[in-house]
Amino acid sequence: MNTNRWIARKETNWKTLDKLLQQAEKKGLKSLSATEIKQLASLYRSVAADFAKAKTNNLGNTLTQDLQALTARGYNQVYQGSRRQEWRDVQEFYAWGFPQIVRETATYTAIATAIFFLLFLIGWWYAWHDPVFLDLTVPQELIEKVRDRGELWMGFIVGNEPLASSGIMTNNLGVAFKAVSGGATAGILTIYIMAFNGLHIGTIGALVTQNNLGYPFWAFVCPHGSLELPAIFLAGGAGLLIGKAMVFPEQYRRIDALKINGTKAVQLVFGIVPMLIIAGIIEGFFSPSPIIPNALKYLTGFIIFGFLILYLSRKKRIYSNSI
Questions:
Q1: Distance between alpha carbon 125 and the CA centroid of its chain, in Å?
Q2: How far is residue 254 CA from its own chain's centroid?
Q3: Collapsed DSSP state (helix, strand, coil) of residue 314
Q4: For 46-102, how does the pLDDT look when each residue is reduced to its tens digit (9 = 90+)?
Q5: CA-CA distance, 261 to 240, in Å (whole number)?
Q6: Residues contacting 159, CB < 8 A, separation 6+
Q7: Residue 305 gets which letter from DSSP?
Q8: Assign residue 314 a region: left if phi > 0, alpha if psi is -120 to 50, beta otherwise?
Q9: Half-sphere exposure at residue 263, Cβ-oriented, CA atoms within 13 angstroms
Q10: Which stretches are transmembrane (predicted)?
Q11: Residue 138 DSSP one-character state
């Protein structure tokens, strides 16, 4: 092989790759056009082959080392760079994208929330005025524990925090995913889940309040509920988005409406999952703790909810050079 001729033929590719890598290393892959990114990937594969050839044919330590360094830099951008970009995209989503999609779909979340609280009030009212309704909707052993013994039922969590926390997370994620997937039933299952949970919590709320246990009960609910309940409402909104696309696609074809609203629903799910994981940890370790004063639990819940509102209100500023 004529080494000098081979180097002269390949040198242009090496220099072009080096130039593209310098730009990517300084400004990131996003600074390259789609064509340049394809060119970078193609040149990386070509230079990797050149490096292997130089090493096999002993074309000199300097050339081999230069090609090795160029190949390593190309690998970092083609593979590691794409992973870094994916991580930056994840950070960008949680910093700005999730709050934005929550605001865009706020109407559907509001409807899901209204369904929940309407049934919450109905459950509270009937449980307060009709003992038969209470007996039909709440397990008898729970009624006896609260009404007859004056006790709440969350004590079992203490001493079993890790297991209880993981079980709570699994249950809450299951409820959220059912609420979202319920959109596939034209939203009927989603509405049922929101109504059922509202009715259930309203009935329990009336039971504990009637028996002078409302303050410690809501102190237990407040810290984790400040994240858990909004997450469930967002899941309900995501399900209603899908249901709306099925029933009322408006100017879109039904399949296109499902793609558009389905994408928004998936984005909501990505944001909901961390909320429910954090809520599960709080519910397993903080909310039931007997050594934490109830007043502190209420304060913690209000602070968490306040930060959640501030976070969901975040808007990314777009700066313009125009006057």
A1: 35
A2: 26
A3: coil
A4: 888 888 888 887 777 788 888 888 888 888 877 765 566 667 778 888 988 999 999
A5: 9
A6: none
A7: H
A8: beta
A9: 7
A10: 106-127, 152-177, 189-209, 229-247, 268-289, 295-313
A11: S
CA distance 221 to 306: 16
Is residue 174 within 8 A of residue 231, CB to CB? The reply is: no
Q: Are 223 and 286 in contact (CB under 8 A)?
A: yes
CA–CA gap between residue 191 and residue 111 (Å, rounded) = 9
Residue 58, SS3?
coil
* Widest Cα–Cα separation across the chain: 98
- C-alpha–C-alpha distance, residues 90 and 60, integer Å: 44
| Cα–Cα distance for residue pair 51/57, rounded to 1 Å | 10
Buried b (16+ CB within 10 A) or exposed e, 44-76: beebbebbeebeeeebeeebbeebbebbebbeb
Separation between Cα atoms, residue 4 and residue 27, nearest integer Å: 34
SS3 249: coil
What gap in Å lies between CA 128 and CA 203, rounded to an integer?
8
The answer to whether 200 touches 123, Cβ cutoff 8 Å, is: yes
Please name the residue that has the structure tokens 């870094």.
84
Tell me, rounded to whole angstroms, the distance of Cα 266 from its chain centroid. Answer: 9
- Residue 122 burial (C-beta neighbours within 10 Å; 0-12, 13-18, 19+): middle
**Measured distance CA(228)–CA(226) in Å, rounded:** 6
Domain ranges of the chain: 3-88, 105-312
Amino acid symbol at 280: G
